[in-house]
Structures are given as C-alpha cells and as structure tokens.
Design brief:
CATH class of the largest domain: Alpha Beta
CATH topology of the largest domain: Spore Coat Polysaccharide Biosynthesis Protein SpsA, Chain A
Number of strands: 8
CATH superfamily of the largest domain: Spore Coat Polysaccharide Biosynthesis Protein SpsA, Chain A
Largest sheet: 8 strands, mixed
Strand order of the largest sheet: 7-5-6-4-1-2-3-8
Radius of gyration: 25 Å
Order of helices and strands: EHEHEHEHEHEHHEHHHE
Shape: elongated
CATH architecture of the largest domain: Alpha-Beta Complex
Distance between the termini: 26 Å
Structural class: alpha/beta
C-alpha cells in the first residue's frame, strides 16, 4: 500500500495562538526530519486570534513542503488533529503540540520503533515539565484510570507526540477530546501499540490552553470509549440489563409488601407502605431503561449507516 502515499512522513501540528513559538518549532521540525526522506508539515490553525496564521502563511510561502489549514473558528485540538490526519499524504503520521514542549528531535526515535513492526508508537513524558497540582496529578490519575478501564497499558495517553501508520488511524472518527484515545481505538481494531520515553520541555512562550476542566471532559469521553468498546453495537444489553435489575427490585419490594400485608402478624396497610411506592417507581424506571435501550439501538444503526459528518469547518488551505 506504500505506493498510494506521496510522502514518507507527515508532521501534523495543531496551532492555537502560538505566534511566539511556531517559527522556532518549524525550524526544529525541519532539522529533525531532514534525514528521514520525503516529508510534509501540516499546520492546522484552529481559529487563532493572534498573529499565528500570518507567521504560518509566511513559512508556507518559503517552503513548499508546508501546508496550512485554516479553520473558520476554534473547534479544538481533536478537530485540528482530525483535519490534519485526513489531509495528510504521508505513510507515517506524527502529530505534536505547537507550544514547543514536545521535542521534534524525538521524531526519528518514534519512527525507528514504528518500523520494528508496531502500528502506533506513543510518547511518554516521563519527566514532565508542568505544574504538579493542576497538570501532572490529574494526568497521572486519568492515565491510570484509562489503562485500567480500556486494558491498553500506556503511561501517558495525553502526550500528543506519537507516530502512526497512516492506515491505522485514517478510518478513526474523532469527537470531543477523543484524540488521546486513538491508541485505544486502534488497539480495539487489532493494531499493535507500544510506548517510548520522549523529552518534555518547559513552556517558555505563551500560556497553557488547558485547565482542570479538561480532566472532567476526559472522564466523560472515557465513559463513551468504554461504552463504544463494549456495547457500541448492542446498547440494549446495557439499558435492558438495568431494566431487568429494576424489575427484579420491584418484584422483591412487592413480595415484602405482600408479606407485610397478608402474612406478617402486623398486617401493615399497603397504602402507607413506602415499599409499595418503591416497587411502582422501579417498574417505571425499568420500562424507561428498556425504551432507552431500544432508542439507542435505533441510533446506533443510524450512526453506522450515515457516518461522514465532519467536526470542523475549513476556511482555506494554503499550499504550493
């Protein structure tokens, strides 16, 4: 399948208000990949409001190997990576952050590992240069949680610096903050994933775009990923199972009410027995769960039959 690719390597860089770092980053990328073979660099401007786009346009005008994709608005890092992947023409894809914390010098090491037979090589920022309380601690917790739930044993799902075989990620549809789950989705499809340590540098320009609120988004996306991995084609098993449990709870509550009314010496009134109301509530809940499962089944079939909608809108592509 190699003949369908125009380049050996595509480097993908999402950019959002990084005017102070893009020029230096471009120079570092060129230096790092110059000995690899044919390559292209794709910068995806995610609706920057500073001079990032102007700098990127200037870079593109002086280097035909550079392409700049400009979004009409700010759609987020996942959308930017998705656009870069879709428009890439390289056999190997390597995304990295535009803030300069990922070291382009690690790209050859990632590719070297990829060529040993893996489909995805994920970077591990073992010595991460970020604040502990707001960045490192939430990341440690999230990574352990993701590994436990998905079964994919990586230390650093959030590291943007990775190397992919193009065929391993081209067909993956990304939403929310799903870009960090690409190794999980690929592993789900039988791809081989491994991890190597990479250099992580302190931020010297600009301001971080991420806060603690991103951790909550990741947790919600993790729930979605787990659902997709286990029940994407059979959601009725989830909601139907909850419905059966609710019916069981209603039946047990009803038995207790019956016992207290007709068998127990106390002969409690059914009208004032809270367990009777609990049984009615559980029956109603069971019916709702089963109906939700049926609706989910319909939505899943609609999803699998009508995919194709993009999560971003491109304004213009600058290329030679």
């Amino acid at each position: 399948m190699d003949q369908i690719y125009q380049f050996e390597l595509s480097v993908i860089v999402p950019v959002y208000n990084e005017e102070e770092s893009v020029q230096k980053l471009y120079e570092e990328i060129v230096e790092a990949v110059s000995g690899i073979g044919s390559y292209e660099i794709i910068f995806v401007d995610d609706g920057s409001t500073d001079k990032s786009l102007s700098f990127l346009q200037d870079i593109q005008q002086h280097d035909s190997r550079v392409r700049v994709i400009r979004f009409r608005g700010n759609f987020g890092q996942t959308a930017a990576l998705s656009a870069g992947i879709e428009h890439s023409r390289g056999r190997i894809l390597v995304p990295l952050d535009a803030d300069g914390q990922n070291d382009p010098g690690d790209i050859p090491k990632l590719i070297e590992e990829l060529e040993k037979g893996y489909d995805i090589v994920s970077g591990w920022r073992k010595d991460r240069q970020d604040t502990f309380l707001t960045r490192k601690l939430p990341s440690i917790i999230a990574n352990k949680l993701i590994s436990k739930i998905t079964g994919v044993k990586l230390h650093d799902f959030g590291c943007t610096l990775k190397a992919y075989r193009a065929e391993s990620v081209k067909e993956i549809n990304l939403y929310g903050e799903m870009h960090r789950f690409i190794p999980v989705l690929a592993n789900w499809s039988g791809e081989k994933v491994m991890e190597v340590e990479v250099n992580h540098r302190p931020r010297t320009t600009g301001k971080t775009k991420y806060g603690l609120n991103r951790t909550f988004k990741v947790v919600l996306d993790l729930i979605t990923i787990k659902f997709l991995m286990s029940f994407s084609t059979k959601p009725i098993y989830v909601f139907g199972g909850l419905g059966v449990l609710s019916f069981l709870g209603a039946f047990l509550s009803g038995l207790v009410v019956f016992y207290q009314k007709f068998i127990s010496a106390q002969h409690l009134s059914m009208n004032r027995n809270p367990l009777l109301f609990l049984a009615a509530l559980l029956i109603t809940t069971a019916i709702q769960f089963i109906l939700m499962g049926l609706l989910a089944e319909i939505l899943v079939r609609t999803y699998h039959e009508s995919q194709g909608r993009k999560i971003y809108v491109i304004d213009k592509i600058y290329e030679s």
